[in-house]
Amino acid sequence: MSACAAVMAHLPVFSSPPLSYRRWCDAAGWVRLRGGYEVEAAPLGGTGAIGQADGVRHWSYGRGKKAIHTVASQSRAGHPALYGLEFGLNEWLVDEQYERYLRDPGSVDQAWRGLFASSAPGTDQPERNDVTTEGDDTGGAAVKAVRVAALIHAYRVRGHLMADTDPLAAARGSAHPELDIMAFGLGDEDLNRTFVVDDFAGQVTMTLRDVLQILRESYCRSVGTQYMHIQSSEERRWVQQRIESPHPRADRAEQLQILYRLGAAEAFETFLHTKYVGQKRYSLEGGESAIVLLDALLHRSIRHGVGEAVIGMAHRGRLNVLANIVGKSYAEIFHEFGDAVDIRSVQGSGDVKYHLGAEGTYRALNGDTIAVSVVANPSHLEIVGPVAQGVVRAKQEVTAGGSDTFPVLPIVVHGDAAFAGQGVVGETLNMSQLPGYRTGGTVHIVINNQLGFTTSPGHGRTSGYATDAARTVEAPIFHVNGDDPEAVVRIARLAFDYRQAFHKDVVVDLICYRRHGHSEVDDPSITQPAMYDRIVDKPSVRKLYAEALVRRGDISERQVEGALRDYRERLERAFVETQALSVPGHSPERTIPMDAAIPAAPHVATAITEATARHVIASQTSWPQGFTVHPRVLPQLHRRATMLDAGTIDWATAEALAIGSLLLDGVPVRLAGQDSRRGTFGQRHAVLTDRHTGVEYTPLSSLGASAADFTPYDSMLSELAALAFEYGYSLARPDALVLWEAQFGDFANGAQTVVDEYIASSEQKWGQRSGVTLLLPHGLEGQGPDHSSGRIERFLQLCAQRNMGVAMPSLPGNYFHLLRQQALGEREHRRPLIVFTPKSMLRLKGATSTLTELTTGAFRAVLPDETADAARTGRVLVCSGKVFYDLDAYRRSSNLTDTAIVRVERLYPFPERELSAELARFPADAEVRWVQEEPENQGAWSFVGPHVQRLANRPIGCVSRPQASAPAGGSARRHAIEQKDLVASAFR
User: Fold this and answer.
1) Does residue 414 register a pLDDT over 90?
2) Which pTM value belongs to this model?
3) Angle at 160 between CA 490 and CA 550, to 5 degrees
4) DSSP states of 500-551 as a string?
């Protein structure tokens, strides 16, 4: 293979073309190159050069006198004026602009339009040789104007590579070859020439010198802007107009506000550093401009009528944000440093101080306010992002009443290594424009320390920037030097304005540094000695900014020191007050109650009237006139309409009745999951699609004007971010039933972090209660190791202190009451609910319910065996879920009358009272066995075994598959044999 380059006499020879224009040729024929060019292959071993003739760069390849030349790209076919007209390193710009011109002539500047229009077929053009020449002044001026337009475009695309964004850099960014005017066939002799620039910077014509000055001011100072990856020309122009316009200097009031915020951020950190030596706090030192950025964002939000801001962030700088943005009192923070515990705290007290959330009011220096909250988070860094999105979505729905005004601003603060490294970031970005997840655009702030824990960027990411993941959703990215706080403020306002204008995500990459290690007890110089040699000697951003203001004469030294002294005195007073309130040597212990000491939730009436049931079921066969239901779906809906009278209510119908009746009770219901609108198993059909038009219709949304909203959504193919979002949504909508459904139960494995860190433990850690409900299809049915088990054992292992409910109902009627109980229960008693839902039982004729089961009674945690003669029972089988039907079928076929089968429908909180009463009906010497289809080391056995044995007051056995590392085998035939043997062994 050999590199393609051009041999011209006037430029030096290179061993290979520059990286951005490197082309590799196949030695056997014509090869397509970048931008659609084709070249004829030359013998191996040639040498390459890049040359220029008559001011026009041209690429070719040759050895000796034999050379091949580039020919016109297919996109320029039929345009002889462009034949041979090359732009060297930036030839790709011409192709890109021409492709845009073909799609929409108005999307390119006038200079490009003029060039392309003049090159149309039929236009008289001078005959050209292989090397482009400029025949007359008019033609030469046109070519030069296009070169200037290409230069402007190149700066818009590549200018960020030269931007002075690194506060640790010894010197400004070096020149980039693709931004050299020589790469465009321009030279020093052109600097004072005037060119048509088609409204660049608001001008019609400009000298090349002025063009370069504005380009460098706009794209190469302390802000580097990436936005040309955005497909929308409207959005690109919007950014261009604001980036390329003159930036007015901050007035004195703004300078003082910036200085005050920097002083508050710095003084808070240095105060903690001296008062609490050796304690971890994950300092913001080096990135204090983040407080200035948040301050500017919130101030802008107030001016534009945004009612609330929700912040999701990891632990870096969290305490500083809580103190200086949310308004959490210094005394409360200092109290937490003393390990004091307050079990009444809204934020909870079972976690370290830098994980706690808070709600407060941001107060601008002019007295304006906005509600602001920080979402509690674990150490899993970026997982808080989708949780915050869910909180915001719920708040927006309540506040805006379903409109698209997006009155709550989501702000997510990231670390650079985590933004690039954690997949949940990409998942959450992917949500940003999806119907069920939109929040009107999030302002992402990356506190870019240029370092992970100890891992450098070269080992932590492949991409050039930590923020490159955001390019996938066409978000603009502003890289800003943290040591230029005035630029930080300007970009904060620009980011907010973009969000408001386009309701899309936007990223501010605050490039700064970390003065200490990952935590204050870590020594970063062990792994980054050169970096920390520079950091040790570096003044703080507050000091640098204050010196600049004093040097310019904007403020006096006395004003600088006075503001900092006032803030330090406030901290000292709060510290003294906290110390006076503390009891030396004593920290109150939190008493963790046992399950038995926690009161059970009060009884909730869940039965409905027959009229309500018939009203809901009628919606399943009532659709708009002219709507054509798919012929495969129509029979299912007609069968639903007959089930109430036939007494054969199946699972999907019972669920529709539960949801519909809740809507009529005024309870909103949100259902989200992969394929959940139709249902993984084609059972739900919550949303119907017209067979001919594709129009969608939701039957349960037609129950009447007084009914609450039903919002079913198909989620993206994700579990981690998707479940985190629903958890966050449930926090802000305690009035709603929030359902998340996994496509198969074991898919919840992908969201294990959410289960562990939020669903199971958030109340103990943060005093945070959620009523989110998980629907996990479960059952071993010969489908292999995957798609079989919902991993019951994992959820039960997390159960304690009545932190959540775990149920595996075996009847549609019980499932109906379970959902209504979850939605209608008192909020202070509501907890997350895990429901292991059926697969094959969805259509099992024996697994149906009657209308009476819905209009009377309630959820039953234990289903007794009403067919067995208790006095003559010698064996009691206790089980949960689908295996009951296999056991019952065997008992019937074998005509066994000495065996009772008891179903445990709720596994946690374990139904001690109900099961004890049922077991007491049978003889004391009756054998008791637990039966499950899962392997012995999986399923519910290890959890329920001790409970059942204690209640039975005798040894009990377990009938199950042998212990195994996988949930199920891969052979359907072998599964059937195993299941048959397992069921039979339960009766031996």
Assistant:
1) yes
2) 0.85
3) 45
4) HHH---EEEEEE---SS-SSTT--GGGT-HHHHHHHHTPPPHHHHHHHHHHH
